[in-house]
Design brief:
Distance between the termini: 90 Å
Number of helices: 9
CATH class: Alpha Beta
CATH superfamily: Metallo-dependent phosphatases
Number of domains: 1
Structural class: alpha/beta
Order of helices and strands: HEHEEEHEHEEHEEHEHEHEEEEEEEH
Helix content: 25-40%
Oligomer: single chain
Shape: globular
Strand content: 25-35%
Length: 355
């Protein structure tokens, strides 16, 4: 009797299963075993990464009123900057309402909404290694750094001590690790403003061993190293010897890209071995109309992984009315591109990287 009951029960189970399978064919399909390791796929080529660099930014004179609406302060050029994966400018002002003016001719300061304007324009990091970040002393510099932290705007090139000033900002874009550093080569008050182990200040090219060590350390942490330098001679469209020497040091230390500002006009670009160097991006969002040139632009560098695949200048003109940069078109764009290409002649740079 026991065997017979078991046989009847088993037959009933098989009958129910067969009926379920008829109603739902997937229920009867065998289950595919889950592999113990993820299925490997062929590696894909890394997507292009676009970097955008532009020149000096002030919120003073005619540009001060632009901070009445920080979201629109940069105007239409914002679309060019925000289209990049990483955009950078030189913020050439103390962001403070305090401090005492330093013994120098020009002084610039802006409210903390300057950082709101920079963020709204699509800028991801700013250099504050320049000859105006300490216009209102170390009190002003502390405010500049604190205001940046408050809104989450990364800064490079200055800090509470040398360790902070020479430290890179590091980011990861689609698997490519990028380090960004800032330095100043301007001689005005450099020894008083330089960062030391016990004093806040600027990362200076004139402390060459520390600058080189900073770039080498960044290269160990990232496959792409970007160096932004405040250098050159005002009104001179050719880089001075000290800028060319520092560019060579940066290339030797492992920099991928070296860009700069300070001369108030565009300078040339080209290759130093496998390092791309741009000696001067000129004024960008600029406070007055008596600068040496209103020609400017956005340097666009395209990376494929960690290798540079393309560089180009997007020509722009600074509006005489607002001080905003506006993308150039037509005759103006053609003229700026032509004149910009001619600027390479006095840089000592090559038209293409070394093999």
């Amino acid at each position: 009797m026991t065997w017979a009951r078991r046989f009847v029960a088993l037959a009933a189970i098989l009958t129910v299963t067969a009926c379920d399978a008829a109603r739902n064919p997937q229920a009867a399909a065998p289950t595919r075993p889950v592999p113990s390791h993820p299925t490997e796929t062929a590696p894909s080529h890394p997507a292009d990464i676009t970097l955008a660099f532009a020149g000096d930014v002030h919120f003073a004179g005619r540009t001060a009123s632009l901070l009445g609406d920080p979201a629109t302060a940069f105007g239409s050029i914002s679309s060019t900057l925000s289209a990049a994966d990483l955009a950078m400018v030189n913020l050439e002002t103390a962001v403070t309402t305090r401090g005492a003016a330093e013994p120098k001719e020009f002084h610039f300061r802006a409210p903390s909404s300057a950082y709101d304007a920079v963020k709204a324009a699509g800028i991801d990091v700013v250099s504050i290694a320049n000859n105006h970040a300490l216009d209102y002393g170390r009190t002003g510099l502390a405010d500049t750094l604190n205001a940046a932290r408050a809104v989450g705007m990364p800064t490079v090139g200055a800090g509470a001590d040398a360790t902070a000033a020479y430290a890179p900002w590091i980011t990861d874009i689609r698997g490519t690790r990028i380090a960004v550093l800032g330095f100043s080569q301007v001689s005005e008050l450099w020894s008083q403003w330089k960062a030391t182990d016990t004093r806040a200040g600027i990362a200076m090219t004139r402390d060459l061993p520390r600058a080189v060590a900073a770039v080498r350390a960044a290269r160990r942490q990232a496959s792409v190293v970007l160096v932004y330098v405040h250098w050159g001679t005002e009104s001179d469209a050719c880089p001075p010897d000290d800028a060319r020497a520092f560019a060579a040091e940066m290339a030797e230390a492992g920099a991928t890209v070296v860009v700069g500002t300070h001369a108030h006009l565009l300078l040339g670009d080209g290759w130093l071995g496998k390092t791309f160097v741009q000696y001067g991006l000129g004024n960008f969002l600029w406070w007055r109309d008596d600068a040496y040139s209103n020609d400017t632009g956005v340097l666009r560098v395209t990376l494929n992984g960690s290798a540079i695949s393309k560089t180009e200048l997007v020509p722009a003109r600074i509006s005489r009315r607002t001080g905003r940069p506006e993308v150039a078109a037509g005759v103006d764009a053609a003229r700026i591109r032509r004149e910009y290409a001619d600027l390479r002649a006095c840089t000592g740079l090559a038209a293409s990287p070394s093999p």
